[in-house]
Specification:
The chain has 319 residues and is α+β, with helices and mostly antiparallel strands. Among the domains are: 83 residues, RRM (RNA recognition motif) domain (Alpha-Beta Plaits, 2-Layer Sandwich), CATH 3.30.70.330; 100 residues, Alpha-Beta Plaits, CATH 3.30.70. It is 19% helix and 15% strand. The chain has a 4-stranded antiparallel β-sheet with strand order 2-3-1-6. The protein is globular.
């Protein structure tokens, strides 16, 4: 769905409003081409607004006259031209998405990028006018720079379908070579009176508190880092060697030290790290380290002397 002069914006929608309900309602004004109510990717709930496209601009104008401010489920809806509404709300938080896979469509883009904030209109994928095939890039307009900043930070370089996409601020049409997101645009956006109407992710803020899931309150007797009774901390997944993901395997104490030097020892009273055998008691001191009258044998990759190499003179390293 693309924004045209025959498209109306419908705002202040109750959570119970569906695409089918909007379709039936706006049929009273004229033939409906499409209805789109953006939904949050995580909650699958709509964000309180939608778009209805008619066959003609006259039908869209008529819908504004007869349906604006009527109540759906007790809430008066706002109906106005989508193009005019976008113009008043567009603060310049427009991003460019490149290197798109040919299979990526507008719905997938919206489902992916609506998680970062309110999108003013359906994503616009540039297509060949004759074949309708994607040219590999698209544009999205957010209602705030917080949303566009979050989308760029999270999605730039990430895979969407089979390709790693590039996400950045789009170039401005009125200033050659300049991108959106400048300090001047952000200052103007902060003073935009329409921004209060389009704050991202306000759906739950307007709900009755009794309908929200109950979250158990924290026990004031618990110290920071403690878990309530009955809860177990989540352990990271283990590698085949028995080490948590992200932790490199521990090396024997002798690795990384010059030949002949004793390994570094932990301070007294500190237990050895996992995988290192405990130090046998010997009157509070470690047994004396062997002395060498000659340089020690070659240290193998396993951290121990390579007896074969010392006997045969052959190297144990891979060739």
């Amino acid at each position: 769905m693309t924004i045209s002069y025959a498209t109306v914006y419908v705002g202040n929608l109750d959570e119970q409003v569906t695409d089918a309900l909007l379709w039936e309602l706006f049929l009273q004004a004229g033939p409906v081409v499409s209805v789109h109510i953006p939904k949050d990717r995580l909650t699958l709930l709509h964000q309180g607004y939608g778009f209805v496209e008619f066959l003609s601009e006259e039908d869209a104008d008529y819908a504004m006259k007869i349906l604006n401010m009527i109540k759906l489920f007790g809430k008066p809806i706002r109906v106005n031209k989508a193009s005019a509404d976008k113009k008043s709300l567009d603060v310049g938080a427009n991003i460019f998405i490149g290197n798109l896979d040919s299979e990526v469509d507008e719905k997938l883009l919206h489902d992916t990028f609506s998680a970062f904030g309110v999108i003013l209109q359906p994503p616009k994928i540039m297509r060949d006018p004759e074949t309708g095939l994607s040219k590999g890039y698209a544009f999205i307009s957010y209602a705030s720079f917080d949303a566009s900043d979050a989308a760029i930070e999270a999605m730039n370089g990430r895979y969407l379908s089979t390709k790693a996409i590039s996400v950045s601020y789009a170039y401005r049409k009125d200033a050659k070579g300049e991108r959106h997101g400048s300090a001047q645009e952000r200052m103007i956006a902060a003073q935009n009176p329409h921004m209060a109407q389009m704050k991202p992710h306000q759906f739950f803020a307007d709900q009755d508190a009794s309908k929200l899931p109950v979250v158990p309150s924290a026990d004031p007797s618990l110290l920071p880092g403690m878990l309530p009774h009955g809860l177990q901390p989540l352990a990271p997944p283990l590698l085949p060697l028995g080490l948590p993901v992200g932790m490199p395997p521990r090396m024997p104490p002798s690795i990384g030290l010059p030949p002949g030097l004793p390994p570094r020892l932990p301070p007294p009273g500190v237990p050895p790290p996992p995988g290192v055998p405990p130090i046998p008691p010997s009157g509070g001191a470690h047994p004396p380290f062997p002395t060498h009258s000659s340089p020690p044998s070659t240290i193998g990759t396993s951290g121990f002397r390579d007896m074969n190499s010392s006997i045969t003179g052959e190297s144990s390293s891979e060739t």
